[in-house]
Design goal:
The complex is a heterodimer of chains A (113) and B (986).
Chain A lengths: L1 H19 L4 H21 L25 H32 L11
Chain B lengths: L3 H31 L6 H29 L2 E8 L4 E7 L1 H24 L6 H20 L3 H19 L6 H32 L4 H5 L2 H6 L3 H15 L8 H4 L5 H10 L1 H11 L1 H4 L3 H23 L4 H21 L3 H32 L15 H15 L5 H14 L6 H29 L16 H19 L6 H12 L16 H26 L12 H24 L4 H23 L13 H20 L4 H21 L3 H22 L16 H29 L8 H12 L4 H9 L1 H23 L12 H12 L7 H5 L2 H24 L7 H19 L1 H7 L4 H21 L9 E6 L3 E6 H47 L1
Antiparallel strand pairs in B: 1-2, 3-4
Helix pairs in contact in B: 1-2, 1-4, 2-3, 2-4, 3-4, 3-11, 3-16, 3-20, 3-21, 4-5, 5-6, 6-9, 9-12, 9-14, 11-16, 12-15, 12-16, 14-15, 14-19, 15-16, 15-19, 16-17, 16-18, 16-20, 16-21, 17-19, 17-20, 18-19, 18-20, 18-22, 19-22, 24-28, 25-26, 26-27, 27-35, 27-38, 29-30, 30-31, 31-37, 31-38, ...
Classes of the chains: A mainly alpha (113), B mainly alpha (986).
């Protein structure tokens, strides 16, 4: 399972980096989204996730921390998801405005010679 | 005995207060002067004059203490951690300078009152002037070298502001900039030098530094220290080769030239050299550097001065020359030389300030400063002319005037042998030569301006200046005379105090008498006077018509060299570096970023190596692997299709997002799964809305024609991407197969319920433990939403995406072709059943959002997820019925949601202040509600409500703003069409 997840993170990041280096703004936005999946999963994996141990307490009394996965990376990723959404929206709008202004969807705002 | 202690204490307190007042008064005056109305010439002059006079009186009052006790000090703790104190210290030398600064300052204020025209903004002038006075007093009174540097820089800055006072004049701006650049560079050098001194001595306190002369001179860092300190002093005193800023600074108003650029600021350099003379002087390096700079400035400055046509230019070069004389005297390293230097500093200030005032009067009353145009002014302004003649004679070193006395001492020192070297052998000849030049330019000034035939076509009719404008000059010239005839009775004791304070026990025997008999120095003086007169007579006709500047050297202007150097450094080199290292293209920048990130990740791996993880990994779950096979397919597909098939890429991206979401479910992160799912929906809708405005791009079949360069580029990017992917795989695998270290997770898990009152630990972390971070994050979210909104308000689509999409056109044509259908019917018929269901879902989703919100503290859910769900409810309505239909029935005010959310969250946070706890401290308890049952009520839940509200507002605002673009365009085109129709009808 760790290997699967690690490969998944690698593929998501690699596809994202490939798109990041492409010339069209839409490719860039897709690339950034893919990278953010990869990075979110990467941060999440820092908490050694496993099956069936969500950090939702079952008892009111004393608990054994070993029964639950690490909640900290999850809290980090939760905020990252929301902020990722915001930056995607911002980037999309900048992309559209730039395209309206320059007439080109090249990342440099003009077609290469 | 008992009575003495309070006396001593009282005296020290008085010293303390007076020293502080000396610094504070001018700066306070500067602030006050800045606030006076712009036409208050008299009030400004009264204020500035009162401040200068106050400083003068206070300084004189300090003299008894200094004459008796050596030095008075005031010390305030400044940065105790660095051992720095705000120390003021006045000894005899500082006292003499403080007197000079305040006395000449007072006279210049009086003069400036008449010099400045009513149109000039005088508050600025007097404000800067007083601030400069404060800075200059600060330099001479600093008891700490760091403090001295601060005041030193302040004088540079105020000098810059005063030279550029008439900033409508390009010459003033350039002169100001040049002066600041040169003295600023020197100031940096001085700072470095002082830091080295501090390093060697271990203290910046002046007294300690002065006591460590041997230590500094024998230290291995002595030469760098010396060079750096001298860089500061020589630039400030306009010494060769940094002299050229001073003539350009003459663009300043004449009172400024008289005060800053002859009497005080340029003296700061020689002041510093004299101040640190006991510490730095006496070595061969000092002798050579200071001696060469001084001799070159002395001879060349005087030579250049002869050929100036502008009176102020002549006086500026003469100032360079006289400062060179002082520098030369200091270079000798003999105590008698230092005495002569200090004496000449005072003498030069008196006669040069009065000469500048004369130049200002001539300029003011006749309208020009060009010696070629001026002539025979004696008959119009006899008093000014007489005063200027006496001052010039002092400058030339004519007996019975103060300039003669110090020049005699200079000749005596130049003739004496100090170090056996060429420089020392050359010194007497250079001294006579320079003095002869000084005689020549002094005669030229007087002869050219005041004698000869009456002037022709001057801009103004020349006449005598008002009494009060001449008065400062009269006083200064009187001082020249009195000091020149009875030096022992006037300046003698004060000079002695000053000299003793610099030289201490090394103070030599010297005599201030006017007549020493027929000695070698007298012969040298006579030779210089006769030689200068002959030189002037032989050059007279040439000078009357020649260009500005000396022959040969005319072309070699320091100014031009400086400007060329500035252009080279700040323009050519900067452009070169930019063209070599910079790019405006995004792709190389991003590529570099990826490479740097890769290298940064690789570096520790390379230097520390990778141990195999000790932990056996959990068995691979085939179902999980299968899910990720789909996910990997989606990710690669999205990367493959993003150029030509945007919709496909978007769907594939959603697929990868869903697989990520499933992973979260699988691996015990229900909160993440819920949030990811909802955000995935909203993101997809957002990108779908944006697709409409992107240019059409069709996959052409020219792939075979791709150039080799493009292929190589793609290959390089592919290699980068593969490397990045492999690296991430390696790192995450390495981390996951290792035992986790002890983390703060246990703390949060144990305290979540007892301290935070919630069982969903992730939510408790977000809204309670790390509530402040969340608060910052929702602020960012709100800001982003408003930015999106603002950017879209001005959105202009590209011309090729303005037209309606094909589907809309087909539908419209269909409606128009049928008489029984109205325009827009097809759109509303389209997907009728799903849209009804979507409308019915509105309340259902709202309840779902409320459910997510309420359970959030104990079970997966929470403000973020609930907010996005609520936003989805709104969006669904827009999708089902169209923007116009929804907005006719539902008032959605997303900005209010954002504002409410942020304010509410902040107020909940501040609420804990009422109970005496820090911001965002949470309180929790359970509440029994009818029907619902036991509900956790924590103040954190209220905070979460703010989060919820803001997330709803921000998400809805972004989506609606984008969705509105289609309607806006339609509306705009409809209005345009109607206007066209109306104009056709008319």
């Amino acid at each position: 399972m760790e290997l699967t997840l690690a490969i998944a993170i690698g593929v998501l990041t690699g596809s994202g980096v490939w798109l990041l280096l492409r010339p069209r703004t839409f490719q860039l936005i897709i690339g950034l989204s893919l990278i953010s999946y990869g990075v979110n999963l990467f941060i999440f994996s820092m908490g050694r996730p496993r099956f069936g141990a969500p950090p939702v307490l079952l008892t009111d009394g004393a608990i054994n921390p070993a029964d639950y996965t690490d909640p900290v990376p999850q809290a980090l990723v939760l905020t990252a998801i929301v902020i990722g959404f915001a930056t995607t929206a911002l980037f999309l709008v900048v992309l559209l405005v730039s395209r309206g202004l320059t007439g080109s969807d090249h990342v440099d705002g003009r077609e290469p010679r | 005995m008992v009575a003495e202690i309070p006396d001593e204490l009282l005296r020290r307190m008085t010293d303390h207060t007076s020293l502080l007042l000396l610094i504070v008064m001018p700066f306070a005056g500067a602030v006050a002067a800045g606030f006076l109305p712009s036409n208050a010439r008299n009030a400004e002059a009264w204020l500035a004059g009162a401040v200068a006079l106050g400083v003068l009186v206070l300084t004189s009052a300090c003299y008894p203490a200094i004459a008796a006790g050596g030095a008075i000090r005031a010390e305030i703790e400044w940065i105790p951690a660095l051992g720095l104190n705000f120390t003021l210290r006045m000894d005899g030398f500082a006292w003499l300078f403080a007197m000079l600064i305040s006395a000449i300052g007072f006279l210049v204020v009086l003069y400036a009152r008449y010099y400045m025209s009513p149109e000039d903004p005088v508050p600025r002038f007097f404000s800067f002037f007083l601030a400069f006075m404060g800075a200059m007093l600060g330099i001479v009174l600093s008891g700490n070298l760091i403090l001295l540097i601060i005041f030193w820089e302040l004088t540079s800055i105020f000098s810059f502001l005063l030279i550029g006072y008439w900033h409508h004049n390009a010459g003033a701006r350039d002169g100001a900039r040049m002066a600041l650049t040169i003295t600023g560079i020197g100031g940096l050098g001085l700072l470095a030098g002082v830091l080295l001194i501090g390093h060697i001595v271990g203290s910046y306190d002046l007294e300690q530094v002065l006591a460590s002369g041997d230590q500094i001179r024998s230290h291995e860092l002595y030469i760098p220290t010396l060079v750096l300190v001298l860089l500061g002093a020589l630039t400030k005193s306009a010494q060769f080769p940094f002299h050229f800023w001073l003539p350009n600074a003459m663009a300043a108003p004449t009172p400024v030239s008289a005060y800053l650029h002859s009497a005080t600021m340029v003296k700061a350099g020689v002041f510093l050299m004299a101040r640190l003379w006991p510490v730095l002087a006496g070595t061969e390096e000092w002798f050579w550097i200071v001696g060469l700079a001084g001799m070159a400035s002395f001879v060349l400055g005087a030579y250049f001065a002869i050929f100036q046509q502008d009176i102020k230019g002549l006086l500026a070069y003469s100032t360079i020359s006289h400062l060179g004389l002082i520098t030369m005297l200091l270079s000798l390293g003999s105590p008698l030389g230092a005495v002569a230097a200090i004496f000449h500093m005072m003498n030069h200030a008196t006669f040069k300030a009065s000469l500048f005032m004369a130049a200002g009067i001539i300029d003011h009353e006749s309208g020009t400063r060009d010696i070629r145009r001026l002539s025979g002014l004696f008959r119009f302004m006899p008093i000014t002319a007489t005063l200027a003649m006496v001052a010039s004679a002092a400058m030339a070193g004519v007996p019975l005037l103060n300039g003669f006395l110090s020049k005699e001492m200079f000749f005596a020192e130049a003739a004496a042998t100090h170090q056996i070297s060429i420089l020392d052998t050359a010194a007497p000849y250079a001294a006579v030569l320079g003095s002869a030049f000084a005689v020549a330019y002094s005669i030229r000034f007087i002869h050219g301006v005041f004698f000869g035939p009456p002037p022709l076509d001057l801009p103004r009719d020349p006449h005598e200046a008002p009494f009060l404008m001449r008065f400062p000059m009269q006083l200064l010239v009187l001082a020249c005379l009195v000091v020149g005839t009875i030096p022992g009775l006037t300046i003698g004791p004060f000079l002695h105090t000053a000299v003793t304070s610099v030289l201490g026990p090394a103070t030599p025997q010297y005599s201030l008498a006017v007549w020493h008999g027929f000695t070698l120095p007298l012969m040298m003086s006579v030779a210089a006077l006769i030689g200068g007169a002959i030189l002037f007579l032989s050059l007279k006709t040439y000078l009357a018509n020649c260009e500005e500047g000396p022959p040969v050297f005319r072309r070699l202007k320091g100014q031009r060299i400086f400007e060329r150097a500035m252009v080279t450094v700040s323009w050519r080199w900067a452009r070169f570096v930019e063209s070599q290292l910079g790019t405006r293209r995004l792709q190389p920048q991003l590529r570099l970023l990826v490479w740097i990130a890769f290298a940064a990740a690789l570096w520790p791996l390379y230097s520390l190596g990778l141990d195999p993880g000790g932990v056996t990994w959990a068995e691979s779950d085939p179902a999980f692997a299968a899910v990720w096979a789909i996910g990997i397919f989606c990710a690669l597909g999205a990367a493959w299709q993003a150029k030509f098939h945007r919709l496909a890429a978007l769907i594939l991206l959603g697929g990868a997002g869903l697989v990520t979401c499933i992973t979260f479910v699988w691996l015990s992160a229900p909160d993440l799964a819920v949030t990811q799912l909802l955000v995935e929906i909203v993101t997809t809708v957002l990108l779908l809305l944006g697709l409409r405005w992107l240019p059409k791009r069709f996959e052409d079949n020219s792939l075979g024609l791709v150039t080799l360069a493009a292929k190589l580029r793609r290959l390089r990017d592919l290699a980068t991407a593969v490397a990045a992917g492999l690296g991430m795989t390696l790192i995450s695998y390495a981390v996951m197969t290792r035992m986790p270290p002890a983390t703060i997770a246990d703390y949060f898990l144990e305290r979540a319920y007892s301290d935070g009152g919630g069982k969903n630990v992730v939510n408790v972390i977000l809204v309670d433990f790390r509530g402040f971070d969340t608060f910052g994050e929702i602020t960012v979210l709100g800001v982003v939403a408003l930015t999106v909104f603002a950017l879209l308000r001005r959105f202009r689509p590209a011309p090729d995406s303005v037209e309606s999409p094909e589907q809309q056109r087909v539908q419209k044509a269909f409606d128009e072709a049928r008489p029984d259908r109205e325009a827009g019917d097809t759109v509303s018929d389209y997907l009728l059943v799903p849209s009804v269901i979507m409308q019915w879902l509105f309340p259902v989703i709202i309840v779902f959002a409320a459910y997510l919100f309420l359970r959030g503290h104990d079970l997966p859910g929470g403000g973020f997820a609930a907010g996005v769900a609520m936003a989805a409810a709104f969006i669904l309505q827009y999708m089902a019925a169209g923007t116009i239909w929804v907005e006719a029935r539902l008032r959605v005010l997303p900005v209010n949601w954002i504002g409410f959310g942020l304010l509410f969250a902040a107020m909940v946070g501040m609420g804990s202040w009422l109970a005496g706890y820090p911001f965002l401290t949470s309180h929790s308890q359970y509440l029994e509600l009818p029907l619902v049952g036991s509900v956790p009520v924590a103040s954190a839940t209220l905070f979460d409500l703010g989060v919820f509200s803001l997330v709803v507002g921000a998400t809805v605002l972004m989506l609606i703003a984008l969705a509105h673009q289609s309607i806006r365009r339609l509306r705009a085109s409809r209005i345009a069409a109607e206007a066209e129709a109306a104009s056709e009808a008319a």
